[in-house]
Design brief:
This protein is of the alpha/beta class and 216 residues long. It contains nine helices and seven strands.
Length: 216
Amino acid sequence: MSGASLLQRASAAVLAVLARAVTGVRPIWAGTLPNGPLRIYFANHASHGDFILVSTCLHPAERGRTAAVAGADYWSAGRVRRFIAGRLLRTVLVERNWVERRADPLAVMLAALDAGESLIFFPEGTRNMTEEPLLRFRSGLYNLAAARPQVELVPCWIENMSRVLPKGAFLPVPLLCRVVFGAPLKLEDGEDRKVFLDRARAALLALAPRKDGTPQ
């Protein structure tokens, strides 16, 4: 194992302990088992801490092979962010600016899957800073599902993380969080892109708590 891998495993373990201490995060495996084949965990996105919370909920072996997909424009800006993304965290950086990018984001993600890595993926494409519970899905999840149909697509609803680490905050606010893992999806033969994305979005929304705070 390389020095970078050892550092990433150690960092992931430390972050998992800290995340549990701050959020008391509780995984709810409502539609699937914790261990399984290669997966794409697709989740709602409202905080930079979202992928840490999903990763924390995974078993150590699964956590060790799971990388978060993140925007290169943010995580490559500045020496500190580059060090965090490249050395401390398991990240697959994709360039979101189609005019300036030098590598195809889909090719980068497929290369990670082909190397045996599961992915944590945010199909909204950016953090949701609106009052809407979930933004419209971009086409990335469909493209991944079409290119690698054998990979499980597991919806994950992250609850409360936007209040623990809101935009602009450096220190987290202690609040209880949950991550609800739903039943895996797959792209049906001949399924239209929009139909699939709407179905995947509905499956994720179905995991969100009701307005009274109780689970669905």
